[in-house]
């Protein structure tokens, strides 16, 4: 009888130690959701095989007048420029750039730098929370819901109204219209078609949805 009482006392102490307030769970859920979304962006940004495949599928070598190796070389230079630790100016081996083009790519880099920084910080916080067992079932359920509902809504819009979403997205993120490239002054646009960015959006959506499902499954198991 005494042993059973001790077990109950230990259980109550354990529950109090790991009990979390709704506000704390919401904050942790937002951190996890930001990590999953930013991770999806970073993974797709640096998943070069997708672009390499598109060189032949979308005939980017023919469109640009370069061979496949040259197209890869210029895309690799652009990806390296967008890496968060890279502070060197953008140089494309086989393409000229206008001043407006340089400004646009610099704006893109600032955005991707923020995304990569968010991914790093929220990833560390998510890992710390997991190691300290701070991610309750409620926290994971909220994170899973956020990472499924919000991207799913945006993803459905992108599928059915891609041109509109693409235009609105650029209008919100950029303070100018320099993203409207003229192939005569910025021929790099010939190897960066809208269809490639659509594939990137779908890839990000798949990764984010997978992360959301993992959170919901984990929340169910914790219960």
- The low-pLDDT segments are 1-5, 9-18
Record field, number of beta strands? 0
Name the helicity range: over 70%
Write the H/E string, N to C: HHHHHHHHH
- The separation of the N and C termini measures 28 Å
**CA-based gyration radius:** 23 Å
Envelope shape: elongated
Strand content range: under 5%
Main sheet?
none
**Helical/strand content category:** mainly alpha
Tell me what the structure shows.
The structure is a single chain. The chain has 223 residues and is mainly alpha-helical. It has one domain. It has nine helices and no strands.
Q: What's a quick, concise take on this entry?
A:
The chain has 223 residues and is mainly alpha-helical.
In terms of topology, how is this protein built?
Blueprint: H1 2-18, H2 22-45, H3 48-57, H4 60-64, H5 68-82, H6 99-131, H7 137-160, H8 162-173, H9 194-222
Task: Describe the structure using short key phrases.
9 helices, elongated
